[in-house]
Design brief:
The chain has 121 residues and is mainly α. It is built from 4 helices and no strands. The protein has helices spanning 7-23, 34-54, 59-85, 91-113. Helix 1 (7-23) runs antiparallel to helix 4. The radius of gyration is 15 Å and the shape is elongated.
Length: 121
């Protein structure tokens, strides 16, 4: 089984790609600011899931990497708040992305609380 089959990874990847495409509409002055930060944090969710899954035989490491993914997911939500406050996105778009991020968070927490369902003995 690959980390790519995990629903949390798939939903996180979809969200990261949606955010990536959305940031192309941000002002060029945000290239190294908000755009960079929100892209980095949203992608980091997926990379932490992948890293944790590969070391899942070590329960503490698995949970730690998933906790890191959850933290990055929360950071992504913060950057969405800034994008809204800067008027780079609409409130509807922010709420849509927030909902998707919260779904990823729920999936991560399920994995953290049920490591035995993910190949851990």
């Amino acid at each position: 089984m690959s980390f790519k089959t995990l629903l949390g990874y798939q939903k996180g990847f979809e969200l990261a790609m949606e955010i990536f495409h959305l940031t192309k509409l941000f002002p060029k002055s945000e290239t190294y600011g908000l755009s960079s930060q929100i892209i980095r944090s949203s992608r980091s969710v997926c990379s932490n899931i992948a890293e944790g899954y590969r070391k899942r035989q070590y329960v503490k490491h698995f949970k730690s990497k998933l906790s890191d993914a959850d933290s990055e997911n929360s950071e992504t939500q913060l950057w969405l708040d800034f994008a809204l406050a800067c008027e780079y996105i609409t409130n509807d778009k922010k709420l849509e992305l927030q909902d998707k991020s919260e779904e990823v968070g729920k999936l991560l927490n399920y994995m953290i609380n049920n490591p035995n369902k993910f190949g851990i003995k």
